[in-house]
Amino acid sequence: MNQMKKIIAALFLATLLLSACKSSKEASSNSNEFIKESTKEVTTVEKWIVAGEKVNCPETSTELCYQIKKFGSSDYESMNVDIQGFNYEPGYKYQIEVKVLPSKKEATQYIFIKEMVKIASSN
Description:
Blueprint: H1 2-38, E1 44-50, E2 55-56, E3 64-70, E4 77-79, E5 83-84, E6 92-101, E7 109-120
Parallel strand pairs: 5-7
Antiparallel strand pairs: 1-3, 1-6, 2-3, 3-4, 6-7
């Protein structure tokens, strides 16, 4: 009889351990999914005004930067970026939509979506 109690106790303990391992594994899996979701980069679409002339980039004197005014901003900022698909012509001011694809591994990508306005600049 004493032997039977030991076997039942051992089976009960094994069952508890197995169920604890399973719920720990599920919690770890759910936690990993949350981490994967929260670290995804967010793609945005922005409206920019591009000035009619490029300027010397602040970080280098050998390259020219776009002068960009983002929606809601009153000031231009110099941006040394490649806007994929954008056919820039000096002397024209543009209002464009750009898809912004941030990346932690590579440089942020800027993809031209559409030109809303193109006018001769007064510069």
